[in-house]
Design a protein that fits this description.
The chain has 416 residues and is mainly beta. It has 2 domains: 2-72; 77-413, Regulator of chromosome condensation 1/beta-lactamase-inhibitor protein II (Methylamine Dehydrogenase, Chain H, 7 Propeller), CATH 2.130.10. The protein has helices at 2-26, 30-39, 50-72; strands spanning 77-82, 86-91, 96-100, 115-122, 125-130, 134-139, 144-150, 161-172, 175-180, 184-189, 194-198, 211-218, 221-226, 230-235, 240-245, 259-267, 270-275, 279-284, 289-293, 308-315, 318-323, 327-332, 337-342, 356-364, 367-372, 376-381, 386-391, 406-413. The strands form 7 sheets. Strands 1-2-3-4 form a 4-stranded antiparallel sheet, with no helix packed on it. A 4-stranded antiparallel sheet has the order 5-6-7-8, with no helix packed on it. Strands 9-10-11-12 form a 4-stranded antiparallel sheet, with no helix packed on it. Strand 18 and strand 19 (289-293) form a beta hairpin.
């Protein structure tokens, strides 16, 4: 019995010590955690059979320690979006963090100073999208907030100016999805209406003029994505429509049309679409991935550097796709991440900086989400860890550096 009591005391001391360290890291109250254990009566003085209770106590302590330690080192990330040279991520508590280039106020932190580590700027955020020098976020109640560069009216606040709008401003209600392009924006409301605004950019707005406020252009839309100068939308029946500039075949309508001012249907059974600078990708309901458009750096992943004017299948069993400026990424159903295309800054994350890769190459496992920027990249693992890689300039990787270094291997990013 004496040995059992000593074992119990030792276990309790270890448990309390680890809970103390864990609470310090997580910002929790140690009393609250210990109250939880007390409520389960694990260390009840009424338990006279100490030997019988030891196994249950050890099992409970093991579970509590494992759970707490899993939370003490890093937050749980659930969404990430990359712009041209700034970044944003949402954690499991709906907090929005931003970092990177900020001279246009694109980080939304009330300053124009660049930031090299994730900095919290908003609560209750469910979705975020970044453009060249502007940003947008949707909150839990469906409110759409925008901030950053506004020279072409891309903030949708009824004006255009060269000022840095460093504080998020609300411009719409009942929004379910948002996408930012180079200097234009698009949002879907909960009734399926698609609104666009900002710079005209060769038909990218589905209207031959710049718009300073959100203007409805389509119905029955469930997904939208904007590229540098072309746009795409998916309707509820799985039809994919594209419009904008077509100099590299990025609309997927063939090479006859240089540009298109109205949406043209190009595919069926599409569940997701992503647009890069001048290339495009679509994912169908059977997991097939199709690419088309510019291909000088192998960003189509078809083994060539020839542009393609029609959607061409390159992969099976894909669940997610993201395109950067001249690079691409896809996640397969087993959580494997593949990248291809331009790699001058190590943005493919494969450990090298060889100029380009013409076919998809496996780089990570257990991946849930991926986002590609102009020359940096990010991915979230299934357990909620955030990794970034590529060019570190302006602090865009979130690793505490403002250097001009390139990182060809993924770096785990933590929030202090």
């Amino acid at each position: 019995m004496k040995k059992i009591k000593k074992t119990k005391t030792f276990i309790i001391l270890i448990f309390c010590f680890i809970i103390h360290i864990s609470c310090s890291a997580c910002g929790k109250n140690m009393t609250d955690v210990l109250d939880k254990s007390s409520s389960r009566n694990v260390f009840s003085e009424e338990d006279n059979n100490m030997e019988m209770g030891t196994e249950e106590q050890e099992q409970f302590i093991s579970e509590e320690i494992s759970s707490t330690l899993n939370k003490m080192s890093y937050p749980i990330f659930k969404e990430v979006s990359l712009g041209r040279n700034h970044s944003a991520a949402i954690t499991s508590d709906s907090s929005l963090y931003t970092w990177g280039y900020n001279e246009t106020g694109a980080l939304g932190n009330d300053t124009t100073k660049n930031v090299s580590i994730p900095q919290k700027i908003m609560d209750d955020v469910v979705s975020v999208s970044l453009g060249n020098y502007s940003s947008a976020a949707i909150t839990i109640d469906g409110s759409l907030y925008v901030w950053g560069y506004n020279s072409f009216g891309q903030l949708g606040n009824g004006t255009s100016d060269d000022d840095a709008h460093a504080t998020p401003i609300k411009i719409m209600d009942d929004v379910s999805s948002v996408s930012l392009g180079m200097y234009n924006c698009a949002a879907i409301t909960k009734d399926g209406s698609l609104f666009t605004w900002g710079r005209y950019l060769e038909g990218g707005l589905y209207t031959p003029e710049e718009l300073f406020t959100p203007t409805k252009v389509m119905d029955d839309v469930i997904y939208v994505c904007l590229g540098s100068n072309h746009s795409a939308a998916i309707t509820s029946d799985g039809s994919l429509y594209t419009w904008g500039y077509n100099n590299n075949g990025q609309l997927g309508v063939g090479e006859e049309q240089e540009k298109c001012f109205t949406p043209s249907k190009i595919m069926d059974n599409v569940i997701s679409v992503s647009l890069g600078d001048n290339h495009s990708a679509a994912l169908t309901s059977d997991g097939s991935l199709y690419t088309w458009g510019a291909n000088l750096n192998g960003q189509l992943g078809n083994g060539t550097i020839e542009k393609c004017y029609k959607p061409t299948k390159i992969m099976d069993d894909v669940i997610s796709v993201s395109l950067g400026y001249d690079c691409s990424a896809a996640i397969k159903a087993d959580g494997t991440l593949y990248t291809w295309g331009d790699n001058n800054y190590g943005q493919l994350g494969n450990g090298s900086k060889r100029n380009c890769h013409l076919v998809p190459t496996e780089v990570m496992n257990d991946i849930e989400l991926v986002s590609m920027g102009e020359n940096h990249s990010a991915a979230i693992t299934k357990d909620g860890k955030l990794y970034t890689w590529g060019y570190a300039g302006d602090g865009r990787l979130g690793n505490g550096e403002f250097s001009l270094n390139d990182y060809a291997d993924p770096i785990m990013i933590e929030i202090s």
